[in-house]
Specification:
alpha/beta, Neutral endopeptidase, domain 2, four-stranded mixed sheet, three-stranded mixed sheet, 7 strands, 48% helix
Length: 580
């Protein structure tokens, strides 16, 4: 409560700008909430990896210690490139692109990844698609002819919902002969590719891309690829403070770092998981009541589809295999068995870690049936900044809460329920609702894209809710929907679906005499977003997120006694019964 009160700016009316009221008094010494928990996480991991008293005999632990030692010693060292990146018997762009991909640089001419098929969430395929705009190279020097041609090609064939094709490698070679796929996959997988299954979109883009690159000169291609590689190295290089090294390792070696944190630092897993599961189940119970009301006037089959998805949804604590304990060293050691990190060279370790990550990503493609082994599954994607906020995986129908997130001020199992429900309840509600927004609705309970989801999305009332949420500009419609519906779900779960503050007189909590329960709920939710308002990526700015989500919640104006002139609720309900 002391922290909550200290951030308030009482010069501002909560009815006119709630974010400013809740967060307007933070000082120049204020530490962003994510920065705070990341700092605590890094401090704990530094202590573990540098401890002289800890006796861990595993090879994995020694490998992580050596990587950390080399990283901290790294000072403006030139990031030497592996010799193979631009070498070989004559230059060939397809082979060079595959080498780049092996070393972590994706999206040069196209995006490639190993992931599950759109219609079978347990079957691995190679996914190929046109690179998104954020992956495209933006050089500081004037645009070359090749760069211009590539940009114009992306602009011409860009499509928000491209048609997916699921082919064998033989079919890919036949349908897009302009690119030598045999060379690409032999180099990438370092073996005969056999009969891979390939999921590809933007087919016409790939055909024209192959023609363009065949007609381009060797000099132009080498120059472009060299520039892309140099840009990648600049972005990947880091200021090697101990804290930065820990965060870097958590991104490129996520399984190992999560395992060590879970084993030596995290002490409250059992109680935390019990409380999280209880909170998650209560949110699902409230959402099930939304579905029973059937606001969208869905058919029995469509409602069954949604109920099955909700019932099958899983909660996962930490990006770790769910059926392994932190004491099970054999799996973790075997997983990183090919690593040979040194305490002397960060550059060597860095490129080796990226090669290892790429190899592990593509490992399942060479196994019988290319089937996902759920027992050993964890998220291992192409990031240089670890996932520290909860996230929802449509293909797994699973909500994961990273271990780093399980710290105050985000969460503490000793907190009063009003604080747990208003912050973690909102976070879980936000992620849960990603399963039911305009993109998530397409995935069924098993994580496969389904026609029933398309039909639900086409319902007039579903489309009306989408249009309502766009009454003001937004950087991401699906994130706004998750905010709107997640906050409403958390509020309804804590106070009750038929709650009306007009009908109740609240007794203050023992620890707080000024703000009553509904007001504390709103304030604690809002203060999750306190900070310096950095430029948002794929989200609205934090002040916009708070103010718009509360504007959508009709109970807010009642809880703070706002007049209609001060605060006119929007009320863009999608699943919940209409507010009055």
């Amino acid at each position: 409560m002391h922290s909550l009160r200290s951030n308030l700016d009482r010069r501002v009316s909560p009815c006119s700008n709630f974010w400013s009221f809740a967060c307007g008094n933070w000082s120049s010494n204020y530490v962003d909430n994510f920065q705070l928990v990341e700092q605590r996480y890094a401090n704990a991991m530094i202590a573990v990896l540098t401890s002289s008293r800890l006796r861990d005999p595993s090879r994995l632990f020694k490998q992580l210690q050596d990587y950390f030692t080399a990283c901290v010693a790294h000072r403006e060292e030139q990031m030497q490139l592996p010799r193979e990146l631009l070498s070989g018997d004559g230059f060939e762009w397809t082979r060079a692109t595959a080498r780049f991909r092996k070393h972590g640089l994706n999206g040069v001419f196209f995006d490639e990844m190993a992931d599950v098929a759109y219609n079978d969430s347990f079957s691995y395929v190679v996914q190929l698609k046109m690179p998104v705009a954020d992956n495209n190279y933006s050089p500081l020097k004037p645009e070359t002819r090749l760069e211009r041609d590539l940009r114009e090609l992306r602009e011409k064939y860009g499509n928000e919902d491209p048609l997916l094709q699921l082919w064998t490698l033989s079919e890919l070679k036949r349908e897009i002969p302009q690119i030598d796929w045999q060379i690409y996959f032999e180099e990438l997988l370092e073996r005969e590719p056999g009969q891979l299954r390939v999921q590809i979109s933007d087919v016409e883009y790939f055909r024209k891309l192959g023609e363009l690159l065949r007609e381009s000169s060797k000099t132009a291609l080498e120059s472009y690829l060299s520039d892309r590689l140099a840009q990648f190295v600049r972005e990947a290089n880091l200021d090697s403070t101990p804290h930065n090294c820990i965060h870097h390792m958590s991104a490129v070696l996520p399984l190992g770092m999560n395992h060590i944190y879970d084993r030596y630092v995290y002490r409250t897993r059992s109680e935390d998981m019990r409380q999280l599961q209880q909170l998650f189940d209560s949110l699902r119970g409230t959402f099930a009541k939304y579905l029973e009301h059937n606001r969208l006037e869905l058919s029995y089959e469509q409602l069954s589809y949604l109920h099955a998805k909700l019932a099958g949804m899983q909660l996962k604590l930490g990006n770790l295999p769910v059926n392994l304990t932190s004491a099970d060293y054999s799996f973790y050691n075997d997983h990183y068995a090919s690593a040979n990190f040194s305490a002397d060279s960060f550059a060597q370790n860095f490129w080796q870690a990226l090669r290892l990550r790429s190899r592990l990503q593509h490992l399942a493609l060479g196994q019988p049936g290319a089937t996902l082994q759920l027992k050993y599954y964890y998220v291992n994607d192409d990031l240089f900044r670890a996932r520290n906020a909860p996230y929802f995986e449509h293909e797994r129908n699973t909500l994961t809460v990273p271990l780093v997130f399980m710290q105050w001020p985000f969460y503490d199992h000793r907190q009063h329920p009003i604080f747990r429900h208003s912050l973690m309840g909102f976070i879980l509600g936000h992620e849960l609702n990603h399963a039911f927004e305009q993109e998530g609705i397409l995935f069924d309970a098993a994580g496969n894209e389904a026609l029933l989801g398309v039909r639900i999305r086409q319902k007039a009332k579903f489309q009306a809710a989408l249009n309502c949420a766009q009454y003001s500009p937004t950087a991401s419609l699906k994130e706004r929907l998750a905010d709107f519906n997640g906050l409403q779900l958390a509020y309804d779960t804590f106070f009750g679906l038929g709650h009306d503050s007009h009908r109740f007189e609240y007794r203050p909590y023992d620890f707080e005499r000024e703000f009553l329960a509904p007001q504390l709920f709103h304030l604690n939710f809002a203060q999750f977003f306190c900070g310096r308002l950095p430029t948002a990526i794929n989200h609205d700015m934090d002040d916009v997120r708070v103010n718009e989500a509360e504007l959508n919640l009709h109970q807010f104006s009642i809880d703070f006694s706002c007049t209609r002139h001060q605060f006119d609720s929007v009320g863009c309900e999608m699943w919940r019964a209409a507010s009055h």
